[in-house]
Write a structure and sequence with these properties.
The complex is a heterodimer of chains A (346) and B (197). In chain A, 21% of the residues lie in helices and 18% in strands. Chain A is α+β, with helices and mostly antiparallel strands and 346 residues long. The relative contact order of chain A is 0.16. Chain B has 197 residues and is an all-alpha fold. Classes of the chains: A alpha+beta (346), B mainly alpha (197). Strand 5 of chain A pairs antiparallel with strand 1 of chain B, so a sheet runs across the interface.
């Protein structure tokens, strides 16, 4: 079907010409600027959705396998009060992976209640508390809701003197009496005062080196009653280009006014600096740059669900702006000190 | 970590929501093998633009093209086994772009959007008017082809696939590829010529 012998001076289109034409026809087509960022958020979300479809089935299988055992072996009435089981729980804490020992873990202690649901199957089943809450039906635990998180708090460590970095975390505790799953990583939220502050997901190699490698974190968490998870963040302030007027923020540590070392001047702490920096390490002026009257902290909130309201906020010195790095949820280490759920009040 | 301060608990609404960053389980979605979101970036850099252009030749308005290529990237990267072998990633992507372009066209036809919006041209001023003319001519001519003919020509001469590769992408025989190709080329000649008169 080649009729290429007819003379067509201008448009005797050869294959090479077509190739050339095609390339030139789209030579000006460029990706829109936000294309890659969009993919960066969309791909993990799609993966999570796919995974949910799969892990839902896995959890169901796991729950079905474990629950009958737990129920069969429960010698006492489970009131759902985790504090009552503390001692007994300790006694049997070394629950090996044999599920016969599982009943020794009667009350679903918070210490063991966080499980990466997508961990290996055997490990999941070896952790009875994840599914062992009384009255749980052998079904997939529901997704955690805001109401399940009766206790939420934010904590931050001292600023690192050298560069003013501050590490901290939000901790959300399942204070309900049933296990629930966390699949939505939630969002960090910049509140008032956050001028020049940006958010970034932590990646290996960025300045927030002490944050855990996100690759090692589970994609889904199963929180038993009393179990909690952390969302860590690191505040890395930018270096101020122009040294702001720092007369007042310098003397943070040494109350220079009176010249009495250790006098304390309790009545009048170093003026603006205290508000500027809760961790008084005299950092490259984390206060001061903006207007003198503006609050020198910004609110960093964490929203575990899709609502508009942060469940908790932390106040960080805004300084000259900077970056908040964050990691996805991770199982919280067993809180040794904090009382389990007794103090929980929504 | 020396924990001291506790800034806080439960605060209330009020907090103006200035910026939110969805914390994708981003890198958490990384493979055990270490293949991660960085791979997405790599693939993006290597192939996104050419796939976008491929879609631009198969479709006509740029926003659909972008949607199609985005969706292809998402689908292929969400299925990890598909990106395990970088050699094959491009093939998966290309296949998906072709399939999605096809269904986008179909949807659009069903939606009776028969008159395609012209692709927003970002032709710069220094580009010759002749080039622009030629380009529009070609695009108009391509649009006039049968879908299969257009696909074969674009895959063969823009994406530089072999006839066998085109056959695989389109799920037709090599013989059909040859036939669609030569008929498409002939039709294109006719159209370009008639457009010339």
């Amino acid at each position: 079907m080649t009729d290429q012998h007819r003379p067509r001076p201008h448009h005797e289109l050869t294959e090479d010409q077509l190739r050339d034409l095609l390339h030139r026809a789209v030579a000006t087509v460029q990706p829109e600027p936000g294309a890659l960022p969009r993919l960066r958020t969309a791909v993990p979300r799609r993966r999570a959705a796919r995974r949910r479809a799969w892990s839902g089935a896995a959890v169901l299988a796991g729950a079905a396998a474990v629950l009958p055992l737990v129920h069969a072996a429960q010698p006492f009435h489970l009131s759902g009060d985790p504090t009552g089981g503390q001692a007994a729980g300790e006694g049997h804490a070394a629950v090996p992976d044999s599920s016969a020992a599982a009943p020794g873990h009667p009350h679903g202690l918070p210490t063991a209640s966080v499980t990466g649901a997508d961990g290996t199957g055997s490990e999941t089943t070896a952790d009875p508390s994840a599914d062992g809450s009384p009255g749980a039906s052998p079904a997939v635990p529901p997704l955690c809701t805001r109401a399940d998180f009766g206790r939420v708090d934010a904590q931050q460590a001292d600023a690192i003197p050298a560069d003013g970095r501050i590490y901290g975390w939000f901790r959300l505790t399942n204070t309900s009496d049933h296990p629930c799953r966390v699949t939505d990583p939630g969002v960090l939220d910049l509140g008032t005062g956050a001028t020049g502050v940006r958010l970034a997901a932590h990646t290996v190699g960025d300045p927030a080196g002490a944050l855990p490698d996100p690759a090692g974190l589970p994609r889904e968490l199963l929180l038993g009653p009393g179990g909690s998870y952390l969302v860590r963040f690191a505040w890395v302030p930018a270096r101020c280009d122009t040294p702001p007027p720092v007369p007042s923020s310098r003397p943070t540590l040494a109350p220079s006014s009176a010249g009495l070392p250790g006098a304390g001047t309790p009545a009048e702490p170093a003026p603006a600096a205290v508000a500027a920096d809760p961790s008084p390490t005299g950092e490259p002026a984390p206060g001061g740059t903006p207007g003198p009257s503006s609050p020198a902290t910004f609110a960093l909130g964490y929203i575990p669900d899709r609502s508009a309201r942060p469940a908790a906020t932390a106040a960080l010195p805004v300084g000259c702006g900077g970056t908040v790095y964050h990691t996805p949820p991770e199982p919280a280490p067993a809180p040794g000190g904090p009382a389990p759920s007794s103090s929980a009040a929504p | 970590m020396n924990v001291t301060g506790a800034a806080v608990a439960i605060t209330l609404p009020g907090a103006a929501r200035r910026a939110g960053s969805r914390m994708g389980f981003a890198a958490a979605a990384a493979d055990a093998t270490g293949a991660s979101v960085d791979q997405l970036t790599d693939t993006y850099r290597a192939h996104y633009r050419s796939l976008l252009r491929l879609a631009a030749l198969l479709l006509d308005d740029l926003s659909s093209c972008e949607d199609v290529v985005q969706e292809a990237f998402i689908r292929v990267h969400a299925a990890r086994r598909r990106v395990r072998d970088p050699e094959k990633t491009l093939a998966y992507l290309r296949q998906t772009v072709v399939n999605l372009s096809r269904s986008t066209l179909r949807r659009r036809l069903l939606g009776l959007r028969l008159l395609p919006k012209p692709m927003p041209d970002m032709a710069s001023a220094e580009e010759g008017a002749y080039d622009a003319l030629e380009r529009d001519e070609l695009k108009a001519a391509l649009r006039g082809l049968q879908r299969r003919q257009r696909e074969v020509l674009v895959l063969r001469y823009y994406a530089d696939l072999t006839e066998a590769q085109v056959a695989e992408v389109l799920g037709i025989s090599v013989g059909s590829v040859k036939a669609y190709g030569s008929r498409g080329l002939a039709a294109l000649r006719v159209r370009l010529e008639s457009g010339d008169d």
